[in-house]
Write a structure and sequence with these properties.
Length: 230
């Protein structure tokens, strides 16, 4: 098992160059406006969200696969950091514009998550191991179109092959409903949100506010323990 899986920037090209149609070809297009006339800059996720019931209490034990076929577990982070687990709609030959936009915004604001002692993990559910190969093939096909040198994404992007985690969470819909979970440093799920549509996702602002709340609670508990100490 490899700790801290990192995916090359060419994978970002996959995210920012694919469309929303499951049957669409994998030809790149303008990253700001999709072939469906949708502009990712106009997409708005929810700033005000309320936590929902958790489908599985053992999220911290979940095991995923990186695009090179290596297993990676959330246990690598539990006990060390907060974990923001983002489950996208999934990969069915293309990546939806909303998933690409969500991933892009997490990337752009990653420093804010790091300041709050949190790790972001983005999950792309796929139905078969063959889809994993197609994922890599597409990424390679757009490699030469990148203007930016190959760098590394600061957070793990992993695959849920055969929708095992999706089914454990009870969020299957075609592939998956978009879902976000926040685990505290003890591995307990403190926030859960499952969207009912492609756009129904918590914003970066909403997630940072949830982390601020957890950090304030942790600071208060630590101060209370300190006052009780002899």
């Amino acid at each position: 098992m490899k700790a801290g899986i990192r995916v090359p920037l060419l994978f970002v090209a996959l995210l920012f160059s694919a469309g929303c149609d499951d049957k669409s070809a994998t030809a790149p297009f303008d990253s700001s406006v999709s072939r469906y006339g949708e502009d990712h800059r106009l997409i708005q996720f929810k700033d005000k969200v309320t936590t929902q019931p958790v489908g599985d209490d053992n999220i911290g034990d979940f095991v995923f696969t990186d695009i090179n076929g290596n297993e990676t577990s959330l246990k690598e982070y539990v006990g060390k950091k907060y974990v923001v687990l983002v489950v996208t709609r999934g990969f069915a030959g293309s990546v939806c514009l909303y998933c690409a936009t969500q991933t892009s915004r997490l990337l752009s604001n990653y420093s804010q998550f790091a300041k709050r002692d949190a790790e972001v993990v983005v999950v792309f559910p796929i139905e078969t191991p063959d889809d994993s190969r197609r994922h890599r093939d597409f990424a390679v096909s757009v490699k030469n179109q990148l203007d930016t040198p190959i760098e590394k994404i600061p957070f793990p992007i992993v695959l849920d092959i055969e929708l095992k985690v999706v089914d454990q969470l009870g969020i299957r819909k075609d592939l998956s409903k978009p879902a976000t979970y926040i685990l505290d440093k003890q591995g307990q799920t403190r926030f859960a949100y499952v969207g009912e549509s492609l756009a129904d996702r918590p914003s970066v602002k909403a997630l940072l506010e949830q982390l601020d709340l957890l950090n304030r609670e942790a600071a208060s508990e630590s101060a209370a323990v300190g006052r009780k100490a002899p």
